[in-house]
Amino acid sequence: MNQRLLGILLDSFPKILLPGLTMTIPLTVISFSLALVIAVVTAMVQFANVKVLKSIARFYIWVVRGTPLLVQLYVIFYGLPNLGVMLDPFPSAVLVFSINEGAYCAETIRAALESVPKGQLEAGYCVGMSYMQTIRRIILPQAMRTAFPSLSNNLISMVKDTSLAANITVMEMFMVTQRIASRYYEHLALYIEVALIYLLFCTVLTKLQALGEKKLNSYGAN
Amino acid sequence: MAMLQIRNLRKCFDGLEVLKSVSLEVEKGDVVAILGPSGSGKTTFLRCINFLETADEGELIFDGEVFPLHGATRKDIGALRKKTAFVFQNYNLFRNKTALQNVTEGLIIGRKMPKDQANALGMRMLQKVGMADRADSYPNQLSGGQQQRVAIARALATDPEIILFDEPTSALDPELTGEVLAVMRALAQEGMTMLVVTHEMNFAKNVSSKVVFMEGGVVVEESDPTAFFQNPKQERARAFLKTILGEERKE
Ligand SMILES: Nc1ncnc2c1ncn2[C@@H]1O[C@H](COP(=O)(O)OP(=O)(O)OP(=O)(O)O)[C@@H](O)[C@H]1O
Ligand SMILES: [Mg+2]
């Protein structure tokens, strides 16, 4: 490897990592947290068979899962201004990622809720707990434990998907890399560099997932 | 008057009549053993009493208070469940809670009992079933017999007037049934009112105060245990005993 290229890679490393820490990670953390809230609510109204809300939940999941994430980003960021709604890049990205991820996580959590044996709810009734009390204290915690590996997967996917936010001018890692690459004409090296940083992030998350699973298994249940 | 009366309980599952006008009276302190072949409706009967299943018809009278078994209000259901406790065939311990938490959860969350009071009561109940030393174990760290004893402690903690048992030992390995039956026998001696669906003929014979034999969704015979086992009145009960006691002898 020649001196110039090495210099560029070393020089650009902190420049790419920084937006990784200040944009990619916050975007992921905020969006995923909101997605989980949306997902639990969406899964619950289906699980509990709440009449109208259940149809709304199915409709939401149908639309989100049936359309590309990139198109959703364009609709919100470039499309809404036609209706007079202008959102900044970062909030637009948070909005789209949380709504998108919420639909996928909702399906994971719904399946996990349904996998909890019916007897758990009945046992709750028999010791004087209400439906909501039993859901909150018994059913949902068990479901979240079941869903943990899948949700971790979703989170890891999301880290990578945030690179799509470059399309709506969010200054995250990939956007910054694109700029540096076109300045120096070193596309191959720089895109591999950013890929390795994504890989690093995902490796850390995979390790955390393994730790989390171990902790969940070590204290009983299942 | 009997503590608990069930009148004309009827229940269908998709057009199939599983319980055909079942009536039963239980006195305070009674230990009623419900026997009968598989599919005769024993589980369904117990579940209807506790509103885990909604009957199509019938009423239940508890200490003179009338509860419709069909179309009961939420308040009725809550009030009745407060008087009863249920022990399931497969234990149904809360899998995400320790043994002690299993016992206290309903007290703290359902009945708003202060936590230390609930914990003290919970430990006393675990002690009673010989499980105090495993208070911090999770269900999957316990044997079936131990889980069922915790489930009985959980039932006792809610201070029920009657405990409904649905084949409490039939999911257990034979060598573990004894510890559960011993706990139930002790409860019977203390005067706890119990309704026990069981295939344990020795328990029915030696512990129960009354035997109810069900078949095809009806109570075929109701008598005291000695009479039932020595000289059943009904042909169907006689046939049932012959099969089941024959099997026991073979084992
Ligand atoms: N949820 C249900 N849906 C449809 N049919 C049911 C349901 N539960 C029970 N049944 C039917 O009702 C009948 C009585 O069942 P039940 O479980 O009460 O019998 P049981 O006497 O407890 O039998 P076992 O000794 O095998 O436990 C059976 O024919 C069964 O198939
Ligand atoms: Mg049964």
Task: Give an overview of the whole structure.
- The complex is a heterodimer of chains A (222) and B (251).
- With 222 residues, chain A is mainly alpha-helical.
- Chain A has one domain (3-221): MetI-like fold (Orthogonal Bundle).
- Chain A contains eight helices and no strands.
- Chain A has helices spanning 3-47, 51-65, 69-79, 89-115, 118-126, 131-161, 173-184, 187-218.
- In chain A, helix 1 packs antiparallel against helix 7.
- The longest helix of chain A has 45 residues, at 3-47.
- In chain A, 36% of the residues are buried.
- By secondary structure, chain B is of the alpha/beta class.
- Chain B has two domains: 27-66 and 73-83 and 160-251, Rossmann fold (3-Layer(aba) Sandwich), CATH 3.40.50; 93-157, no CATH class.
- Chain B contains nine helices and ten strands.
- In chain B, the strands form two sheets. A six-stranded mixed β-sheet of chain B has the order 6-7-8-3-9-10, with helices on both faces. In chain B, strands 2-1-4-5 form a four-stranded antiparallel β-sheet, with helices on one face.
- In chain B, strand 4 (57-62) and strand 5 form a beta hairpin.
- At the A-B interface, helix 5 and helix 6 of A face helix 2, strand 6, helix 3 and helix 5 of B.
- The complex binds adenosine-5'-triphosphate (ATP) and magnesium ion (MG).
Uncertain stretches of 5 or more adjacent residues of chain B: none
Gross geometry of chain B? globular
Strand order of the largest sheet of chain B: 6-7-8-3-9-10
**Helical run tally of chain B:** 9
Q: What is the N-to-C succession of helices and strands of chain A?
A: HHHHHHHH
The CATH superfamily of chain A bears the name MetI-like
Please give a handful of descriptors for the protein shown.
heterodimer; A: 222 residues; mainly alpha; MetI-like fold; 8 helices; 0% strand; B: 251 residues; alpha/beta; Rossmann fold; six-stranded mixed beta sheet; 9 helices; 10 strands; globular; binds adenosine-5'-triphosphate; binds magnesium ion
